[in-house]
Amino acid sequence: MFKRALVLLPLTLLFFAGCAGLKETANMTVEERFAVAMEYFNDESYDLAINEFEAILLQFPGSEQFDDAQFYLAKSRFERAEFLIGASEFSKLIRNIPASSFVPESQFMLAECYYQLSPPFSLDQRYSRKAIEELQAFIEFFPSDQRVPEAETRIKTLTEKLAEKEFNSGYIYEKMEYYTAALQYYGLVSEIYHDTKYAPLASAARIRLLAERSRNKEALKEIENFIKRFPEDAALKEMIDLQTKLAPSVLSSN
Known about the structure:
Elements: H1 2-21, H2 30-42, H3 46-59, H4 66-79, H5 83-96, H6 103-117, H7 126-141, H8 148-175, H9 179-192, H10 198-212, H11 216-229, H12 236-253
């Protein structure tokens, strides 16, 4: 029994020590309560901060601290990696308090929530597309913001991921000998994701597949486009050699 008491004593002390760090905020003014909430936030005690920010939003809806509480509530959710909830909270601020000085950063952080949710290329890319949408909105509405270059970099990264997914789909269809589907996916990557590294890869893959299927006229047209669009690509020589090989057969058929 004595040994058990010795074990429980440190746990009891830890419990009361933790409680001693908590502050009784129920009867505080909004200014005092927000200050406590920010102490928790800055100490990375995000669960405690969330409780206080939510209480402020409920009890002081017309206060000067309302948009501050909404913003830092969203930030707390983000810091806890609760990205979907964080996105919802940032959206609330943008939608309900459009005059807030926190709107630009909230728009960026809304996009960042979806960016963090973006999975590897092989999985469903709905969050990647949503992140791109919100990043584009940020650039459109706040073109002079210092975070615009970062937003543009984020968009490029996500676009590369989308292109990789579509290119991989084309490759899989080709290996499965579903050539029509493969050609469609390669064409989609080449046209829609034309500024990614997968565009010349997809275009070259489409040309090879057309040539293999004896669709020489189409292949030659694609080669002309390839030469114009990707003059520095590593596959350029291969495409020119293929053009030389296919051209006589097309001329003779005319």
